[in-house]
Design goal:
Elements (H helix, E strand, L loop, with lengths): L1 H14 L2 H8 E4 L2 E4 L2 E4 L5 E7 L3 H12 L4 E6 L10 E5 L7 H15 L5 E8 L2 H4 L10 H12 L5 H10 L7 H6 L3 E7 L22 H10 L8 H8 L17 E7 L1 H14 L3 E4 L8 H16 L5 E7 L13 H12 L5 E7 L11 E5 L2 H7 L4 H6 L3 H8 L2 E2 L10 E7 L1
Parallel strand pairs: 4-5, 4-7, 5-6, 7-8, 8-9, 10-11
Antiparallel strand pairs: 1-2, 2-3, 11-15, 12-13, 12-15, 13-14
Length: 429
């Protein structure tokens, strides 16, 4: 069952590739570019400029080159260093999960390049997960990089849902929440999205740099109060909140969006469906349940296990697949991430049972570890005790990776160049 769980995950990774998504949704012939349902006559533009940001920044630019050829130029900002760089692009290796100096340089360079475009230009934005930290520029010059990093760490460790985190990120940034679209106006704009956010909130992807922002400054003040963030923020950020001095982001009626289009070409739903199809092929009775998206990991663990046991009463061989992400409020953190924390939380509950659980990120990175996630089954606790490992201490100390690494149960893929959120695969027989 452990091998089958890994098989389902790796199948989804292979088939939900950016290259295959671009083959389906992006095509160029005789100077006409098709992006999903839109057509762009490339001969009618004085310039075509590409901005590709996020963990899949290079992979998306490579896929676009395969459709359009070598003549493109632009900027690629990713946290993943490519084996080789594409001709015509300037590269930046931004930080993740917190910005670094390259993130700031990327933000400044992108803004400057976009402001140079005119109404006869076409700007192709390609956006993937991780872009929130990979490209950044504070809205206020008083916010230093260390202050920005401290703010990001506060947000990431707060346990707040990603939508709340992104609302604050947008309003502290000169590039998020539609502000790249503002910079590119009046050029024609099209955004291709490889999404690691819920399908209903596409403007949360990379904090929505090219889309109208559905959040407001008042939301930010309420989120800060709800999660007790104000006292944790550095002084430069705290002062903006205390003075209610955040600037509003552009909304849907802004002229910057009159010549803008946005197309999701790949999302978590695709990875979930591909894993589900493979599970059916392998003879499992299947259920998809994404209800626990953005839930606390312990609540999600309890819910998913209850659902699996309910399904088990109806069929002898069942598979429950769940997409999205869970949240973990880290205290005195060790080495690991949300997927390994969830898996470890389940290990004790399934001890001795014929149940297997794999939880992993499609980007190949789980938190601050080198693993994508982990796999547990009814033998995990017994094997851990035989090796002198303490699962309760690992769980309490948020140090799941050393635990799973020692057992050989970490799921390690390396960075995938893609980012479609997480997959949780639960098998029982």
């Amino acid at each position: 069952m452990r091998a089958l769980a890994r098989q389902l995950f790796m199948h989804a990774l292979r088939e939900a590739s950016i290259g295959k998504a671009f083959e389906r949704h992006v095509h160029a012939e005789r100077g006409v570019l098709r992006v999903c349902e839109d057509l762009y006559d490339l001969h009618s533009y004085s310039r075509v400029f590409v901005v590709s940001i996020g963990k899949a920044g290079h992979t998306m630019a490579e896929a676009l080159r395969n459709q359009l050829g070598e003549s493109l130029e632009g900027i690629i900002a990713s946290s993943v260093e490519p084996v080789s760089q594409l001709h015509g692009y300037r590269y930046f290796q931004g930080g993740h999960p917190t910005p670094n100096s390259e993130s700031i340089r990327a933000g400044e360079r992108i803004l400057k390049s976009l402001q140079a475009q005119n109404a006869s230009a076409l700007v192709i934005f390609m956006i993937s997960g991780g872009g929130s930290s990979i490209v950044e520029k504070p809205i206020d010059d008083e916010i230093s990089l260390p202050d920005l990093t401290a703010t990001y760490q506060t947000l990431v460790h707060s346990g707040a849902p990603i939508g709340d985190i992104n609302a604050i990120r947008k309003h502290l940034s000169a590039v998020k929440g539609g502000r790249l679209a503002l910079a590119a106006h009046p050029a024609q704009q099209v955004s291709l999205l490889v999404s690691d956010v819920p399908d209903a909130t596409p403007d949360a992807l990379a904090s929505g740099p090219t889309m109208p922002d559905s959040t407001t400054v008042e939301d930010c003040y309420a989120i800060s109060a709800r999660h007790g963030l104000l006292e944790q923020f550095p002084a430069s950020v705290r002062e903006l909140f205390q003075r209610h001095a955040l600037e509003e982001t552009p909304k849907s009626d802004d002229p910057a969006f009159h010549r803008s289009r946005w197309w999701p070409v790949l999302s978590n739903a695709a990875a979930v469906e591909l894993a589900a199809e493979e599970a059916k092929r392998l003879g499992f009775s299947l259920e998809i349940d994404n209800s626990c998206d953005d839930w606390d990991y312990q609540r999600a663990a309890d819910y998913l296990l209850q659902r699996l046991r309910e399904l088990r009463q109806k069929s002898a061989r069942v598979c429950l697949i769940s997409g999205g992400e869970v949240t973990v409020k880290v205290r005195n953190g060790g080495t690991g991430g949300r997927n390994q924390q969830l898996a470890l939380a389940l290990a004790e509950q399934i001890s001795g049972e014929n149940i297997t659980v794999l939880s992993a990120g499609t980007d190949g990175i789980d938190g601050n570890s080198r693993a994508a996630g982990a796999i547990v089954d009814g033998t995990t606790l017994q094997r851990a005790k035989a090796r002198g490992l303490d699962p309760a201490a690992a769980l309490a100390g948020f140090g799941a990776f050393p635990f799973f690494d020692a057992l050989g149960d970490a799921v390690i893929t390396g960075p995938t160049g893609n980012n479609l959120r997480d997959l949780r695969i639960l098998l029982a027989y």
